[in-house]
Design goal:
Largest sheet: none
Shape: elongated
Number of helices: 18
Radius of gyration: 25 Å
Oligomer: single chain
Length: 332
Amino acid sequence: EYPEGRSLRYSYGTALLKNGDFTLAENQFRILTEKFPNWGPAWGMLGQSLYLQSGRVAEAEEAMEKGLLIDNRLEVRQIAARFFYRRGDRTRAKSQYLQIVEQFPNDPRAYFLLGTYYHLEGKKDLAREAFEKGIEVDPDHLPNLAAAGDTYVTGANPTPEGLAKARDYASRILMKVPGDPQGRLILARALIAQREIGEARRVLDEFLVEFPESVMGRSLLALSMIQTTDPDLDKVRKVLDEILERDPKHEMANKLLAHVESQQGLRAIREGSLEEANRHFQASVNRDPDNLDGRLKLAGSYLGLSRADPAKLEMAIQEARRVVKASPDRFE
């Protein structure tokens, strides 16, 4: 076959793999390994297709190792790293990613792959460091710009310096690819964090005209609404309810709805309805169990209700204990 035919068969096998047709995918990659025995990607993807068929782990490893032995290009090492990661062999996966960087120090893709690995492992600082190194190698590498920018705008306490970098990276992305969705979302998030709500809303409104179904876009819209001086909590709730109807496990939307519940609980207290406040605080904690401030509000509402119902005192104590156990240094 000509190289074009090789690429077509490889793409077909990859599509079958993504569709869950593992045996059919294996057949395509076996044909490729027979026709092109020195082409590593075919061996790597053969290993993937074998692994995804239960009980064929040894065969999968053999194919993967053969691919690495005959062809150690970045693409082949990337396939091997993903294979080991999917297997749960984090040590070998990390080794592959580090070898990619060592072997291809001037290729920005190498640092993007390493950063993505660290991101999946929850090591945000190491991920950012890798993405930044990739930007040093190639200041216009879009995946590294987007990934690094994202690390600066996510998290509980973004720094002014980080937000400035995020805006710079978003601007570089949009200069190179005007209208790029990820670039616009990073820019909007940075603007919200910097309390430039009007400009953030302009960016998001334009974005949502083009991508009305974007869950992240609508989540950021809700966040921008919350950040206003006197937010309309009912309107924010409506936006978040629509998001969670499509994606009930969306982390950001659940956290934002927990915040809305908490604010509505405080409003209920101001209006003199402690029982309604308690219901909102319970809903907030259910949405975001790790939010200690939410648990403190719930404990306080139980304490207030204990005057009429002494049984609520024990519930207040239980919530307070959970908070102290989760953050003992905060309550020395």
